[in-house]
Structure formats: structure tokens, C-alpha cells
Specification:
Length: 488
Amino acid sequence: MSERLQRLALAILQPGFAGHTAPDWVHRHVAGGLGSVGLFGRNIATPEQVTALTRELRRDNPDLIVAIDEEGGDVTRMHVNTGSMWPGNLALGIVDDVELTEGVARGLGRELAGYGVNLNWAPSADVNSNPDNPIIGVRSFGADPELVAAHTAAYVTGLQAAGVAACVKHFPGHGDTAIDSHLGLPRVDVSRETLAARELVPFHASIAAGTKAIMTAHILLPAYDTEVPATLSRRIMTGLLREELGYDGLIVTDAIEMGAVAHTYGIADGTVRAIAAGVDAVCVGGGLCDEETVLHLRDALVAAVVEGRLPEERLAEAAGRVHALAAWAKVGDAEPVDHALGLAVARRAIRVTGTVEPITVAPHVVELAPTANIAVGEQTPWGVGAILAELLPGTTVARFRTAEPQLVDDQLRAAVDRPLVVAVRNLDRHAWATEIVASLLAARPDAVVVEMGLPGAATPGAAHLATYGAAKVCGIAAAEILTGRRLD
């Protein structure tokens, strides 16, 4: 097997791995030409540990790209164990101040650069036109294409000013879907004219802003290709993105092991098809994170070249774009980052309905916490209970993932003669949670509801808060309103 082809194939892979230190196989392949590695929550313990990890990897290859999926808000890897101190996209879109969005992105970028991360698989440029979308929601700046475009461009500018490459996602737009592409193949069945006026607007803006990378969406877009998802479509990756939109930066796949690709093509054939279509780098490792997977994809690419199914020039072109990004991205020294801006934006994003009287005695908090989507994950804490407990000792918190017998009666008893706070996340999507909130409010109309996801058409309660995200700063901002006390 040609060593040159192996190095070219390794250059375009962006695998993950398990553990707080890199396994031996990662060191070997980084030294042997692996162009990138991706960090996930399983790799994060402390800032010091992450910094040591990235420095250790760069001893094998000083030009290594270290990527992370750090959107801020609900999707956080750096703050996976505590919750993010940066608000997510929807909160930024609600505030609608592009200078603040740029500032938040710059602060997050400085933080990542200090840890040795130089590619961020963010921001999401998806226009959340479908309120039932199971995977985007608060990860989007909103449902207005022009607003999303303006904030996407500002985010790219801020992030890249810190020396961290932005990777705008999910091209050509994952907002109008009702299926999670981690699990199946979504279909966006609209005309080219609708796509141009809606989905593509933020990508035009991000290209004009100079984004260094764009991530693909595993979605079927019949207006351009009736046969294969966008990630594998030459008509979309080359015809639309390269030729029509004029983009010449790095194109990265969404995780190739996601169901939309893996269940139909398998990860090896999917990888070869993606590179042939015009993609430059393959993200793998959100779920698969072992050497066998890396070798499997490397060998599939080499075999495709040898057998004539993938031109060597195309593989070399893809590897060249990876190397060009590595040459641009800077790796800074760790420096203190002030999260005050993140909290300030979270405070401005909250919308209050009704009158919220400050809570001065320890309340009882009921948190209804359905299973989070795969992008968010279950590891990151959210809610207001823990923060209220710090402010008002004696606060009690009960958290439920599903309805339980006697739940309502038990929680009403726990809240007798005490304030009652009910924290929810995307309440409209969960009938069991909606019924519980209605029953609690029927008995306690004085309870305050805190919606930390995408607000529905009619959030219940005479008094309620909408935080537009479940980042830690959103919880802090909500607790401040509930208690009338600032945590400065």
C-alpha cells in the first residue's frame, strides 16, 4: 500500500478518541500524517488537562488541527460537566445585537485557542423554520433568514479574530427537518427558490465573512439531488457550494457514523463518496473512537484510489485544504477569559410574562428533564434548582425524566407553604410534561414556570420566564430574576 496515499488519506480524517490523555494509537497516527483530531465531552476534565493534552499531541505534529464541537449554550464540550458560561445561538438571536454576538464568539474563541483548539465545529447557521425540528431548536439564531445570516457572519468574525477557524453548519441547511439525522435521513422537499431565500442566506453571509470551514448536512434535498444526501452529492458539494456560492475553503462532513449515512452506505463507502463529491475532511468519532475505525476509513480511501473510483488528485486536493487550514489557524497561550459578557447577554435574552415576585425563602423546584437530543447529550447539567439552592439554602429540588405515579401530589406536598418553581425544556414537545405542569398550576397558580428550551405557542402560568437556552449562564440569569438578587 502506497505510503503517500496512506498519508493523504489520514490527512483528511478528523477522528475522536476516548480518554483524558491520547492513546498510543493516536500518537502514532498523528506522527504518521493524521491531519486532525476531534475533542468531545469524554476528553474534557479541566482546562489544564485539555491544554496538556493538545500540547502533547502537537509534539507529534506541530501542524495538527484540534477540533471541538463547542457551540456554547446547550451544546458544550469544554463545559460539559458544569454547563456553558456562553449563551447559545437562540439567546443571541433574541437579543439581536451583532456586536454582542461577535464579542461572545471572540471570547469563546480566545478560550478555545488558549486550550490549544484551533477549529470549532460551529456555529449553526440553520434557519429554524420548522418549530418541531428535533435536533436544531435553540442551536439556531432564529427563524428569520436575514437575522440568522447577520449573526452567523458576526460569529465567524469573532471566532476567527481569536485565531480559531469557524466551521459553519449544517450546509445546505438543517432547519426545516422533522427527523434527527443522527437517527435517519431527513428530507427537505422545497424548491430551489425557497432554499435560496431561506436556507442558503446564512451560508452566503458566512462565506462573505470568510469562514474557513463549512460542515455538511446529512439531508436529502430533492431540488438538487433526488438520490443521495447532501454530504455525498457532487451536485450539492461541488455544484452548489463550490460553483454557485463560490466557496473555496474546507468542507467537513458531519459525523460520518450518523444514521443518515451509515445505515444506508456504511461509513467506509460514505467516506469515499463524500470525498468524491467534493468534501475535504471527514468527521468521525462522536460515537466511533477507535483505531480500527481510522484504519478502516484510511484503507477504504486508498483502495478507492487504487481501483479508480476516487481520483488521486481529488484526495490530494482535499488534503491540501486541510494543510492550508492548519497553516492559518493559530495556537495561543492559555489566558484568563472573562465570562461576564456571556452572563450579560443571558440577562438581556430573558423574557418575563406576568409579575414575578422575588423569592426570599427556600423554594421547592420541580425540574422536568426529558431525554436531550444526541447533539446536546445527557452529561451537561441544566436547570435553576442548583443555582437557587446556592442563593437560598434549604431549597429542595426534584427532577423527573418521565411521569411517575403520584408525582403531582408528592410535589405539591413538598411545596406546601413554600414558593414553587417549575423548570422545563421544550415543554410543547413532551405531552407527559405538559400534563404535569398543567396539574401543578391548577393547584398552585402562584408557581413560576421557567422554560429553558424553545418556548411554545402558549407557555403556561400566570408568571413565567423564557431563557431561550439552558446554558449555565441562562440558569443564573433566571435565578437572579426569581430571587431579585444579582450574582456579580
